[in-house]
Automatic annotation (TrEMBL):
Organism of this sequence: Angiostrongylus costaricensis
Protein name: IBB domain-containing protein
Transmembrane portions of the chain: 56-79
Keyword entries, A-Z: Membrane, Transmembrane, Transmembrane helix
Amino acid sequence: MRRELTEDEKIRIVANRAEALRRAEERKRREALAAAAVAIAAGPSGKASVPRHQGFSITIPQVILFNSLSLVFQFYYYYYYYYYYYYYYYYYYYYYYYSY
């Protein structure tokens, strides 16, 4: 003879069912997105019109632009990093110095 379920067990069963339903909905949504991506990649003709990879070429102006941008971002990163490090270091230094 089966025993009566406690309230905690009933809540856990309902929560597990809700989680399983949520996972099933998420899986359906992912499968629909994947099917849509395949249909978009196939194009109007129904065949995959995405060109195959024909090699990798990069031009010299692109190299110069990328290097200059990376130098600019490096400068800003280190400038702000050291600025805030300096600011917070002296802020806490004066805070503890004048708190005693």
